[in-house]
Design goal:
- This protein is mainly beta.
- It has one domain (7-581): Porin, CATH 2.40.160.
- The protein is 12% helix and 41% strand.
- It has 8 helices and 27 strands.
Length: 582
Amino acid sequence: MDATFSPSLCESYQMGSPYIPVDSWVYPSVLRLYSLGYLDHVFLGLRPWTRASVIHMIENAGQLIEEREGHGYSTAGEARAIYSALRYELREDIANLCGAPRLYTRIESVYSFARAIHGTPLDDSYHLGQTIVNDYGRPYQSGFNNYSGVSGFADAGRFTLYARLEFQGAPSATGYSPALAQELSSIDETSYYVPSSTPPYGPTTAVFNQATIPQGPIATAAQGRFLEAYLAYRFPNYVLSFGKQDQWLGPAQGASMAFSNNAQNFYAFEINRMEPLHVPGLSSITGPFRFEFLLGALRGHTEMPDPAYELNPASGAFNVLNPGDPWVHVEKVNFRPYRDLELGFERTALFGGEGHQGVSLHSFLRSFFSFVAGNGTNKGTTSDPGARFGSFDFSWRLPYLRNWLTLYSDSEAHDDVSPIDAPRRSSVRPGIYLSHLPGIPKLDLRVEAVSTDPPITNSHGGKLMYFEGMEKQGYTNQGQIFGDWIGREAKGGQAWVTYHLSGNEWIQMSARNQKVAKDFIPGGTTLNDIAFQFLKRIGKDVEFDGSLAVEHYKAPIYLPGEQSVITANVRLTWFLQRQASH
């Protein structure tokens, strides 16, 4: 045991601590250490975690690993490898955890990510599906794509300023035809009648350029973008922040029903309880709590009831002027009644935007406190509650198999308080995780199923999950669903087999399936892919991440026959750990 590693001795936290991006290797490694039975104080359904909170999670793992190594546990070596990798990653944070307030700056990483795509990929989470998922809404098309960036942060006492800036390049593409865009617009009820510019000057249907419909031609992308950029203030166990930052509000690996990194992050104000909260009396029953609150504005919502519009001569489509974007607030609370069980309840509410009362303090409070579903009589009035979605998730290390098998599920319902209250109207993503196989401690297995197509009549047509009757581009930011990539009315699943080379290196094979319902998209969509990933360290501070995916999909509404897409990714990341203290 490392006797000098005792973060619990810090009774006051005087330094800030940035969040760890949700696409970091840290998360699957910590989740494996938890599933092997070496950690207990992990909240799987509330991510991201700060660097300081991960230090507290692993505080007692070293002693437990030593004890089990002495008793011949087959998994102790795997746990030791993960623990050592985490200690190395967080070494500077451990050294500074109890330090006096000062100015501290660090370049966290520099990376370059090359992606080559052969074939015509899908990039339409709101309708047909996606070739690349959980990728921060990065642009991609057939050909060579590149994303190069740098991340770093500065701590000044309890304040933290974090930024992850990326240059993104992607080729041009044909995109959807006007006819396909018109059909999808009709499905979403976002078409409008406008005066014809030619005789007889009668009304004609217009398709407005919408972020949720990738209508062509799609221009070459060459842009700089902040994936994350926020200012945070930490006081003992809370973090208050404003800016663009990651969210992952569920225990699954493949996606999160309520919030994931499938779309671009948006600017938001957040209050996050980072360390477990013990409420006297109540916690003796429920165990410790963690919770967060988030409020921000979505972007890319272009439909309006009576929009001003202009004709785009290049595409022949209409551009909406002054679009009405909704705002969103999210509340999530998770608690652990005992060490092997975690329960989480979440609520997402969209207010403002098309058809709703405008964004104001009154509309926010109405959406926050109202538990009455919206209807045709209160939409757009002072009684408008907005659009509400409620989620429930759990993770459970099974009795007698707690060091082997974890069962979990994530679920969400639209216009119901919770999926527990309306299971037949709910979408669900259940999964199991086997932390190691008998006789092969380095190999693990994870399997997840997913459905946003509950067996009820009014789910047909894609107008239940992630859709809202007034705000028809509902659960999206900049055109992509920021929840589960499976989409609005679909079924599918994912599976991963991973061989761990060390605590932060692995070889992985995965498979993914998605099937969009035919009563939503005419002809439906069927997508299957198989992917291979090789994650390896060159030395201790350079990470090589290579992957190859082969995808086959059928989307007769878009392209005839079966389409094949091959995607090759190579990412090099240099974790500089360059720092300066003043």
